[in-house]
Amino acid sequence: MQTKISLASHIGDYKFDNLLLNAAGVRCSTTDELEKTLDSMAGGCVTKSATPEERAGNESPRMKALPLGSINSMGLPNHGIDYYLKFAEENQGQNGKQVILSVAGLSIDQNIEMLKKVQESAFDGLTELNLSCPNVAGKSQVGYDFDAVRDVLTATFKFFKKPLGLKLPPYFDFNQFNGISEVLNDFPVTYINVINSIGNGLVVDPETESVVIKPKGGFGGLGGDYVKPTALANVRALRQRLDPRISIIGTGGIKSGMDVFEHVLCGADLVQIGTAFGYEGTPIFERISKELEEIMDKKGYQTLDDFRGKLKTI
Ligand SMILES: O=C(O)c1[nH]c(=O)[nH]c(=O)c1I
After folding, report:
1. Suppose 223 and one of 20, 147, 275, 297 were both cysteines; which one would form an S-S bond, judging by CB atoms 3.0 to 4.6 Å apart?
2. For the purposes of burial, counting CB atoms within 10 Å of the CB of 2, is it exposed (0-12), middle (13-18) or buried (19 or more)?
3. Nearest atom (ligand 1) to Cα of 220
4. Where does residue 96 fall: left (phi above 0), alpha (psi -120 to 50 degrees), or beta otherwise?
5. Cα distances (Å, whole numbers) of residue 15 to 98, 166, 269
């Protein structure tokens, strides 16, 4: 007999009845897509990263499904901050679901402009500042420039009083884990979300002897199975280094309940599903919830706290 198992979690004062969310960028560009996710088993939804004005994004083909995941160079196509802010204001907290508003300005000024708009709005949910888009030609990922991260957070927290999360790129070196953590621990950041896609990978089709996406000569962000070990490493390393007041959303390589279990074992408070959600749609949230509950039941866990962050070393 299955004792009552809970997949509930929280970030700051925000309660999620289920720890599963979509990842920004996947099936979340329109209000229809976002409403579908809110109507599913997911604990909430995340909007496509917004820029101040609507953007068409990069030329197609700009995303390719692959046997072990995906590569994309979308180039930040979105309907603009006003479109998503309106949706967020109207849907945040409905039926106990959280709406996370993702913003990705192409400059510090654009980020400040959008965050000022959010601060002055009626939206009282979580905002996710994306510092890790790898696909705008000529723009590097802010998350790799620790001084720039410090600058944008210093400017932001002069006026932004609402809860703020940061979407960060994957880090690959202990000096980077240390460097970003030293910056983040200096600011009232509510959570960090690791990882964004592994930027500027290259997929080749040997039949046609060609790249598979058009933008940037075929270079694009990798997602799916390719990135799970890097995602788990970033969740674990930042959990070990960040002040406990900063929550962690684990993103990267999740397509099963076992993948979620591993992310939570490494310290994730919530998880986001990108590539696999893109392929499977909202039924994935029910499938993965059931798989995770079965794993927890077999292991004798009732809540996520029973095993969160308790990864063993040998
Ligand atoms: O190309 C994109 O739109 C994109 N693609 C990604 O893989 N991550 C991001 O943060 C973004 I803003």
Report:
1. 275
2. exposed
3. 7
4. left
5. 8, 18, 11
267 is in an annotated binding site: no
Domains, the chain, ranges and CATH?
2-57+75-198+225-306 (3.20.20.70)
Is 196 annotated as a binding-site member? yes
21 forms bridges with which residues in the sheet?
272
- Ligand 1 pocket (Cβ < 6 Å) reads 25, 49, 72-76, 104, 130, 132-133, 135, 196-197, 221
Of the residues 28, 45, 133, 266, only one is catalytic, namely: 133
Q: What is the pTM of this model?
A: 0.98
Buried b (16+ CB within 10 A) or exposed e, 82-95: ebbbebbbebbeee
Give me the pLDDT at residue 134, please.
86
Does 133 participate in catalysis according to the annotation? yes
Q: What pLDDT does residue 1 have? A: 53
Give the three-state DSSP class for 44: strand
Centre of ligand 1 from the C-alpha of residue 7, in Å? 28
Looking at residue 2, its pLDDT comes to: 56
Where the chain has pLDDT below 70, the residues are 1-3
The answer to whether 274 is a known ligand-binding residue is yes
Q: Separation of 269 CA from ligand 1 center, angstroms? A: 23
pLDDT at 171: 98
What ipTM does this complex have?
0.99
Q: How far is the CA of 135 from the centre of ligand 1 (A)?
A: 6
